[in-house]
């Protein structure tokens, strides 16, 4: 997988288009009506994973601290339907956590995870905080990955 790590203004129109198209395929077409462009993309790093042919199969964003949560926040974590069950999701989150640690060393990380993925994110040291809630009609959990070198 070829990874690209860019701020919003550095993405370029092709990367932005491909990222939004993949996000729309999953978050809108698979999961139901949902306004994906939420005004936060401009305040985030974007991680894109392309195969050897240049096809985008993985994406996530890391939102700057203080925008969504006090800590940096990983979200819009997605793999293409064709790449599911290949381990790419794990590779994507590992890469995202590593990039976040490099950008904000020693800081924790907070996410709003779909509730059924609690164990998945637990593999990187994320711990459930609070009670489940609905976000876009899907059960979610707030999860925190504590600061420090021992987290994940």
Key structural traits:
152 residues; alpha+beta; Aminopeptidase; 7-stranded mixed sheet; 3 helices; 26% helix; globular
Name the CATH homologous superfamily: Gcn5-related N-acetyltransferase (GNAT)
CATH class: Alpha Beta
Uncertain runs with pLDDT below 50, 5 residues or more?
none
Architecture (CATH level 2) name: 3-Layer(aba) Sandwich
Could you say what the CATH topology is called?
Aminopeptidase
**What structural class do you assign from the helix and strand content?**
alpha+beta
In helices, the fraction of residues equals: 25-40%
Mean pLDDT: 92
The run of helices and strands is EHEEEHEHEE
What's the number of helices? 3
Question: Which strand order spans the largest sheet, edge to edge or round the barrel?
Answer: 1-2-3-4-5-7-6
Q: Mind telling me the C-alpha Rg? A: 15 Å
Number of domains: 1
Straight-line N-to-C gap: 22 Å
Indicate the overall shape. Answer: globular
The percentage of residues in β strands lies in 25-35%
Work out the number of β strands.
Answer: 7
Topology:
Elements: E1 2-7, H1 12-30, E2 44-50, E3 56-63, E4 73-79, H2 88-103, E5 109-114, H3 118-122, E6 127-135, E7 138-145
Overall description:
By secondary structure, the chain is α+β, with helices and mostly antiparallel strands. It has a single domain (2-145), classed as Aminopeptidase. Helix content is 26%, strand content 34%. A seven-stranded mixed sheet has the order 1-2-3-4-5-7-6, sandwiched between helices. The longest helix has 19 residues, at 12-30. It is globular, with a radius of gyration of 15 Å. The mean pLDDT is 92.
